Amino acid sequence: MPIVEPEVDIHSPDKAGAEDQLRTAIREELDGLGEDQPVILKLTLPERDDHYREFVDHPRVVRVLALSGGYSRADANTRLDRNHGMIASFSRALTEGLAADQTDAQFTAALDAAIASIVAASRT
After folding, report:
1. Which of 1, 16, 20, 66 yields a CA-CA distance of 20 to 30 A from 49?
2. Which residues pair with 86 in a beta bridge?
3. Pick the residue with more confidence: 124 or 65?
4. What is the CATH number assigned to the segment(s) 3-7+14-121?
C-alpha cells in the first residue's frame, strides 16, 4: 500500500498557505484514484485544527497519520488532540527525553510515559 508523506516545514513563514496548497493537491490526486487504489497519508500536524479532516473520511484513504515534524512532544500531542481522526506517527517526539545514559528503569519509564501521552492524543 502506498504511503504518501509530503512533510511541510514547521518553520515555514507561510506554513498555513503551504498546507492549503498541499490539501488541494492531495484532494485532486485522491479523486483521480480508482476504488482499488487505497493510500495512507502521513502529514505534518497542521496550523488549522482539522485541516485534513476530509481525508480521514475519504474512501481512498486507509489512515491519516500525523508527523510531529520537529514539534516538541507536548506541542505535537496538543496539536494532534485538535485534529480528529489523525493518529500519531511520531519519531522525534517519541524519542524526546530518552538518553543512552539512562538506567533501564529510567528509559522504560520515560518511553512508557511518552507512549501513553501520544496514545491519548491519538484518541480524538
Report:
1. 1
2. none
3. 65
4. 3.20.20.70
